[in-house]
Amino acid sequence: MLTADRLFGWQAALFPTGRSGMIKINTGAWRDDGNGPMQVVPGPVGRERVHFQAPAAAKLDGEMNAFLDWFNTDASNDPVLKAGIAHLWFVTIHPFDDGNGRIARAITDMSLARSEDSSQRFYSMSAQIRQEREEYYEILEATQKGTLDITRWLAWFLDCLGSAIEGAHTTLAAVLAKAHFWERIAGTAINERQRMILNRLLDGFEGNLTTSKYAKLAKSSNDTALRDILFLVENGILARNAEGGRSTSYDLVRNHSQKTDKDYYTSDKQLHLDRVAVTGAAPFGSTSRNHHHHHDHLYRRHRRHCRCYHDHHHRYNRLRTPAPWHDSVSSGWAQPA
């Protein structure tokens, strides 16, 4: 349950010294407007501009009681849309001297967690909002200065959620691909130089890998770099690109079906003469079925989040704002600056 005491604890934890920078602020309590009305002033230092004035401190108890009662009991809205409404409502009340945005994002994540049937989430709405900060302030200002219609805000919120999910999908796919790669070559004895270079390639190495680049990254001689590379080629871990001579470069073999130098290695006399003797090892290593099953399970669960997002996006325009939101805005406390 979300309570005032819980919010006080969150905000106090953000400012353990009781200061925001050099300025002393109230912590663990609603703001008191001792230094004047609360004005929302986004923007870089020296280029700030007031775009919204929050309700007076004297109204905070009533406004926050209404918000918390709605948050904890209302079940009339889709839970994902409720997360978007909760964020907008809380940040519009702006009940603290500082930390309102961070706490609003925490409330959003809390609400989204409630909406799912899993204790695990693979995306962060909070991080995505920070990433889209400029657009966030633009739509927030337009909504807070506009009418009671919050459809544009919810549309932006769902788009932001979609970006968070898709970003997490990309990250998760990369993590699983990396895990599968290391499982595939687990039976091949590689040295620390090779492991470091392979990790660089897996993380998105820019340009082509050549012997000279390998030597520079591994801080080794060109001869050592070539021996390392040819070992990886022989074991189906690297593939030689079509260009030959000094421009010869190499790419990762990410799956079994990708054609590699191993397929035509003995037909290339020069490469055969250059290669070094290596100890026999299982070229692809052993693969754990349990690990693959676990990774695939995580992947399928994550894709389920993506489908849920699209379902919510189609439903948002049928939303009606909750009565407490109407009552608060129409009472006149949400005033443009």
UniProtKB/TrEMBL annotation:
Residues binding ATP: 98-105, 136-137
Keyword annotations of the record: ATP-binding, Nucleotide-binding
Record-annotated Fido domain positions: 2-159
Pfam family, one: Fic
Protein's UniProt keywords contain Nucleotide-binding: yes
One Gene Ontology MF term: ATP binding
PROSITE patterns per UniProt: FIDO
SUPFAM superfamilies xref list: Fic-like
Domain of life per record: Bacteria
Statement: the UniProt record of this protein carries the keyword Methyltransferase: no
Active site per database record: 94
Gene3D superfamilies, per the entry: Fido-like domain (1.10.3290.10), Winged helix-like DNA-binding domain superfamily/Winged helix DNA-binding domain (1.10.10.10)
Protein name as catalogued: Fic family protein
Lineage of source species: Bacteria, Pseudomonadati, Acidobacteriota, Terriglobia, Terriglobales
